[in-house]
């Protein structure tokens, strides 16, 4: 039951962060969002740092599950168009519904991690099926320095998501096509 309660509180903290920003992330706000008695969150996570760490760990867990699921939905990537399709699917997921809320929380956590090496370590990009699919695609297309090109391509994709999260709208397909073309050069 403790693990379930911790996950419930971490999910509530994600919601608070998405709705109210980093300043709104308090133990009381999480208690309210989780519809639990006052003091429950602080009983599980004594400090703000402990709460933020639990939130970031949960965020990474949810992101990894999403990336795995997305990669499983796609056929093996053989053409640039198929890679663009996969990137387009991921950007839509990150900009709508629960994915948008997680993106808002993720970027707030990234800013906090600039001052907190422990959070930064948790947020380091992880191996996942999506990253592996991009790496394999680039290698199969003769790209040299596959690791750096994969990192650069995914970092640029992340930047496009951030831009559209702030400015609104979808990531234009032409932008994704340009990223893929640059990665293949």
Automatic annotation (TrEMBL):
Residues 26-45 bind DNA. InterPro entries: Homeodomain-like_sf, HTH_TetR, Tet_transcr_reg_TetR-rel_C_sf, TetR_C_31. This is TetR family transcriptional regulator C-terminal domain-containing protein. Residues 3-63 form the HTH tetR-type domain. The keyword 4Fe-4S does not apply. Keywords: DNA-binding. It holds the Pfam family TetR_C_31.
């Amino acid at each position: 039951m403790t693990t379930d309660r911790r996950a419930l509180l971490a999910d509530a903290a994600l919601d608070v962060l998405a709705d109210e920003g980093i300043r709104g992330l308090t133990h009381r706000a999480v208690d309210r969002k989780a519809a639990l008695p006052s003091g429950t969150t602080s009983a599980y996570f004594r400090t703000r740092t402990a709460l933020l760490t639990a939130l970031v760990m949960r965020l990474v867990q949810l992101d990894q599950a999403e990336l795995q699921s997305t990669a499983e939905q796609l056929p093996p990537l053989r053409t640039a168009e198929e890679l663009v399709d996969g990137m387009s699917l991921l950007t839509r997921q990150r900009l709508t519904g629960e994915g948008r809320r997680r993106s808002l929380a993720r970027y707030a956590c990234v800013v906090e991690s600039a001052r907190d090496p422990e959070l930064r370590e948790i947020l380091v990009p992880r191996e996942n099926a999506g990253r592996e699919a991009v790496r394999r695609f680039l290698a199969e297309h003769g790209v040299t320095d596959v690791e750096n090109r994969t990192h650069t391509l995914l970092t640029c994709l992340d930047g496009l998501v951030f831009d559209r999260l702030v400015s609104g709208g979808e990531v234009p397909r032409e932008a994704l096509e340009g990223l893929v073309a640059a990665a293949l050069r």
